Amino acid sequence: xxxxxxxxxxxxxxxxxxxxxxxxxxxxxxxxxxxxxxxxxxxxxxxxxxxxxxxxxxxxxxxxxxxxxxxxxxxxxxxxxxxxxxxxxxxxxxxxxxxxxxxxxxxxxxxxxxxxxxxxxxxxxxxxxxxxxxxxxxxxxxxxxxxxxxxxxxxxxxxxxxxxxxxxxxxxxxxxxxxxxxxxxxxxxxxxxxxxxxxxxxxxxxxxxxxxxxxxxxxxxxxxxxxxxxxxxxxxxxxxxxxxxxxxxxxxxxxxxxxxxxxxxxxxxxxxxxxxxxxxxxxxxxxxxxxxxxxxxxxxxxxxxxxxxxxxxxxxxxxxxxxxxxxxxxxxxxxxxxxxxxxxxxxxxxxxxxxxxxxxxxxxxxxxxxxxxxxxxxxxxxxxxxxxxxxxxxxxxxxxxxxxxxxxxxxxxxxxxxxxxxxxxxxxxxxxxxxxxxxxxxxxxxxxxxxxxxxxxxxxxxxxxxxxxxxxxxxxxxxxxxxxxxxxxxxxxxxxxxxxxxxxxxxxxxxxxxxxxxxxxxxxxxxxxxxxxxxxxxxxxxxxxxxxxxxxxxxxxxxxxxxxxxxxxxxxxxxxxxxxxxxxxxxxxxxxxxxxxxxxxxxxxxxxxxxxxxxxxxxxxxxxxxxxxxxxxxxxxxxxxxxxxxxxxxxxxxxxxxxxxxxxxxxxxxxxxx
Length: 674
Prior knowledge:
This protein is of the alpha+beta class. The chain has ten helices and 23 strands. It has helices spanning 157-163, 169-183, 311-353, 361-402, 471-492, 510-519, 529-552, 581-593, 618-623, 657-673, and strands spanning 3-4, 10-12, 17-35, 47-48, 54-55, 58-59, 65-73, 83-89, 107-112, 117-122, 131-140, 143-153, 427-434, 443-448, 454-458, 463-464, 467-468, 498-503, 567-575, 599-605, 624-627, 632-637, 642-648. The strands form four sheets. Strands 1, 2, 3, 4, 5, 6, 7, 8, 9, 10, 11 and 12 form a twelve-stranded mixed sheet that branches. Helix 8 (581-593) links the parallel strand 19 (567-575) and strand 20. The radius of gyration is 27 Å and the shape is globular.
């Protein structure tokens, strides 16, 4: 059973060959230091970092990344090493966050080689620190233990190394930052494009704001495992922006900064996937809005009223800004109501504490005055909320019809004029988000492309329209949701740039899969039985291995000519039925390593069905973004503490839009293959 540690707590280790897995939601640097029995690091040769990732008995990541897997063989460490400190740091000089208070709390887990978690620790309570010692693996009386440390350093790696007694602390910190800056291009690797001149840049232009003005989790791309099973719906905005449509300052609605664009490729160096004509300066301001109405009235909303290089980017940023405004205005309303409640309770307590006012007209009048004041405060808060919601609703009514296909609902008329696109869009709509106070207003839930995390469509028993839904009905809805998302991905990618595979061991998803199989857009027929499962998993894991080796060796051009360089999506139905231990291991490997090289996972599963595997699959569930086939309030927002209700993006009943779009996708693929 996993030990969930708190700061200062320790736990024994029963094995010496371990992995330390780290999830942070943003690219961070991971390293380790060796120290003797007095806790002193004897020199730079006792520090493992991206510039020198390997030491006897341990290996760390070679670059900054949102997720890390560090390998340790404690039995192979030098005899005079008594402590191994696992350190985390924010990359310096690359335009990202500069303090841990602006990112998700890092989650660190010590696991066996089979993936079984031994101990885990969420590093909380950090603010201005930019480096932290997360864990210590230390030797005590011949046995090894792990201790949760969480010691942060506002001065970064230089202060951390100095605290561990390293004389060359500043020089080493500088060299690590240089190595990380050179390797940032490799932090999110991608398979080679078919034609260099058609691959759009996936780097969003960042606004002119401080590097620490973003918080974790953008879209549901939040840090895996920080608040399981909840995830973060969007990256919150900088503090201090105003609420309510037009109160949003220009440039506030921006996507989270991504890794910097790689430099021009050199012999044996990384591949440059950025468009040669892509501008990297600050984006232009939004176009002029419509003139304001009468004095005192807000300006009329305009679609694309946000910064960005294109209308697609402007709309993406505007949707994100609407999410921020809704979160802030509801948070303000809830805070005002809480204040009114606490104030009334305090005033009533004062009345009851005075014996003279417990009886008679004086006490009744005081209580009535307190309740009247409470009602007045709540009414004022509700009026402010209604005003902001009216403005946001008006903005949503203008923005929704203007959204491109990748952002639009299935009932949007834009789908009736579908043609295969020439470029990959910035983001994809997975559904809608709303709050209990805003039943009539929802915000599109957009996730960036290419997908950085797989999707888990929960087919477990859940509420459906106020009743407990039948398990078979929910499973069917879950598979319908998976098909709708897969069809949308096929539709928004250029022809030949996205391939879908399906594993359906028992064939239970045949009716839901009919639009995909009937149109011929699948890469191959759905795999059934143990042999089919093994064939698909072997083929995709081999692809991940080949692309990883080519990219790490700087030999992307040496990939086999028959390798499909398109993005790959694997839909798995009814997991874990039909999966043996080897297949489960391969699935976990694809979930961990696949997204970085263009292999993505979409699981349709009930977590309780996999309970027989015990905690072995916990890292798999944490690595996936959980969505539901019916409305559910499982998405958490650590920025203001809201629980958002997610509504899936399903095709309207009796609509033929899905079949029509897939027919166009199939025709475009046939034309592309000629």
